Amino acid sequence: MVKICCIGAGYVGGPTMAVIAVKCPAIEVVVVDISKPRIDAWNSDTLPIYEPGLDEVVKACRGKNLFFSTDVEKHVAEADIIFVSVNTPTKTRGLGAGKAADLTYWESAARMIADVSKSDKIVVEKSTVPVKTAEAIEKILTHNSKGINYQILSNPEFLAEGTAIDDLFKPDRVLIGGRETPEGRKAVQALKEVYANWVPEENIITTNLWSAELSKLAANAFLAQRISSVNAMSALCEATGANVSEVSYAIGKDSRIGPKFLNASVGFGGSCFQKDILNLVIKINDYQKSRFVNRVVSSMFNTVSGKKVAVLGFAFKKDTGDTRETPAIDVCKGLLGDKAQVSIYDPQVTEDQIQRDLAMNKFDWDHPMHLQPTSPSSVKQVSVVWDAYEATKGAHAVCILTEWNEFKELDYQKIFNNMQKPAFVFDGRNVVNADKLREIGFIVYSIGKPL
Ligand code: NAD
Ligand code: UGA
C-alpha cells in the first residue's frame, strides 16, 4: 500500500488529501499538523473549515484510509510520498517585508523530514512558493541525508475556496514538475499514477520544476489582473453612466477573453492573490476598496459619524467562512475610522473571528500569536449579529460585502421599514435587484453602475 503523508491540515491539505483518499482506496493518507485544535476538529463532527461537499468526502473515508494526526514525525517517517502544504505568508519584518514569501514554516517542515526519514521519499511542494524553492529544499534535505534519496516535485494547487471539492474532483489540470533525470521522471510518474485514479491523463501536465513553480504564481497573477481590470472599468462606468455588467458581458463574448471571472466587486480578497502577486495589481485593488468607503461616506452627506451601518457579509467570498484578506476588513476599518457604528452579519463567520480581524494590524493574520489590537476603542463600535434583519434594524445604510445567495432573497421591504431614512444600500457585489429596491424607496449604489 502506498502511504501518503501531508504536512499541513489547512484549506489546501485537508480537502486535497480527503479527495485523494476517497478516489484512491488503495492509498493510505495521513494529514498531520502541529496545531492540535485543528487536528481535533478534523477528527470531530465539526470540521475546521467550511467547504460545500467536504463533510461527505471526509465521512466516507475517515478512519478507513484517511487519518488526521499530530504525530507528525511518525507519519512522515512511514510515508512514501510527503506533501508539504504549510502556510507561506508574506514576511512581516526583515529583508523583503511586506513583499517576499516567508518560508519559515516550509523550512522547518523540510528540516524535520530530513531528521526523521529512514527511507527514500518523494517530497511534493503543494504550498505556493517562490520559483527555485525546490532547489533550496533539496539542499536542506540532502545536507545530512544519511544516503537517503529525496526527489522534490512541484505540484501546485489550483482549487478555489468555496468550490474546493468540485475543483478537486474535476480539475482543469493537474500540474506536476520534477527534475529531468531518470529518478526525477520516476517520481513524476509515481505522483501521476495517484491522480490518474480520477483525472483524465490529458489533464495531467508534466513539466520541469521551475515551470511548475512559476505557473502557479502566473495563474494567480493573471486571475487577479482580470478582476482588477474589470474593477478599473467599474470606476469608469460609475463616472460615465456605462453599466459594468453590460460591459463584462459584451467583452466576455469575445472567445479570446471569455466570460468567467469578470464580476466587478468591492475588491478581491482571500489568503493568496495578494501575497502571490504583491505589487503587480495590488494598487488597483486597494483603490477599489477605498473608493467604496469614499462612496459610502460621500453619499451619506459626507459623514457617517455615529450612524449605524449594517454590513452584510464578511467572508472574502460566498460559501466559505474564510476571512483572510477579505475586503470587508478594509471597508469596515474605513467606516470605523469615520466613526460609524458597524453592525455585521455573515452566515459563516463567528463574532470572535470578526472582532479579531478588525483588531489586527495588516500582515498579522498569518502570525496570530503576535496579536496586538490596533485600536481597542474602535472594536466597541462594532457589533456582530446572527441575522440580516437584526443588523439592518435602525441602520442608515446597508453595505453588502459578500455575495451570499441569501442576500438576494431578503425581505427588503421589511428591512426598509425598519431603517432610518433616507435608507442607503451599497451593493459591493452587485447581488441585489437595484431597480426593485429603488421602487421600495432605497437609494441604491452598485459597483460600476449608474444611479
Ligand atoms: P493554512 O494556514 O490553512 O494551513 C496551513 C497549515 O500548516 C496550518 O494548519 C499550520 O498549523 C500547518 N503547519 C505550519 N507549519 C507546520 C509544520 N512545520 N508542521 C506541521 N504543520 C504545519 O494554509 P492553506 O490555505 O491551506 O495554504 C497552504 C498553502 O497552499 C499556501 O502556500 C497557499 O498559498 C497555498 N494555496 C492555498 C489555496 C487556498 O485556497 N487557500 C489554494 C491554492 C494554494
Ligand atoms: C484563487 C484562485 O481562483 C485559485 O485558482 C487559486 O488556487 C487560489 O486563489 C490560491 O492560490 O489560493 P480563491 O482565492 O480561493 O482562489 O477564490 P477566488 O474565487 O479566486 O476569489 C478570490 C477573490 O476574488 C474573492 O474575493 C472573490 O470574491 C473575488 N472575485 C472573483 C471577484 O471580485 N470577481 C470575480 O469575477 C471573481
TrEMBL record:
- The catalytic site is made up of 272
The enzyme's E.C. designation: 1.1.1.22
Please name the source species: Hordeum vulgare subsp. vulgare (Domesticated barley)
- Record's catalysed reaction(s): UDP-alpha-D-glucose + 2 NAD(+) + H2O = UDP-alpha-D-glucuronate + 2 NADH + 3 H(+)
Cross-referenced PANTHER family: UDP-GLUCOSE 6-DEHYDROGENASE, UDP-GLUCOSE DEHYDROGENASE/UDP-MANNAC DEHYDROGENASE
GO terms of molecular function = NAD binding; UDP-glucose 6-dehydrogenase activity
Q: Name one GO biological process term.
A: UDP-glucuronate biosynthetic process
Keyword Protease on this protein?
no
One Pfam family here: UDPG_MGDP_dh_N
Pathway as given in its UniProt record: Nucleotide-sugar biosynthesis; UDP-alpha-D-glucuronate biosynthesis; UDP-alpha-D-glucuronate from UDP-alpha-D-glucose: step 1/1
**What does the protein in this record do?**
Involved in the biosynthesis of UDP-glucuronic acid (UDP-GlcA), providing nucleotide sugars for cell-wall polymers.
Keywords linked to the UniProt accession: NAD, Oxidoreductase, Phosphoprotein
InterPro entries linked:
6-PGluconate_DH-like_C_sf, NAD(P)-bd_dom_sf, UDP-Glc/GDP-Man, UDP-Glc/GDP-Man_DH_C, UDP-Glc/GDP-Man_DH_C_sf, UDP-Glc/GDP-Man_DH_dimer, UDP-Glc/GDP-Man_DH_N, UDPglc_DH_euk
By sequence similarity, the record places it as follows: Belongs to the UDP-glucose/GDP-mannose dehydrogenase family.
Q: Which residues does NAD(+) bind? A: 8-13, 33, 38, 86-90, 127-128, 161, 272-275, 324
User: Which stretches make up the UDP-glucose/GDP-mannose dehydrogenase C-terminal domain?
Assistant: 310-434
Protein's name according to its UniProt entry? UDP-glucose 6-dehydrogenase
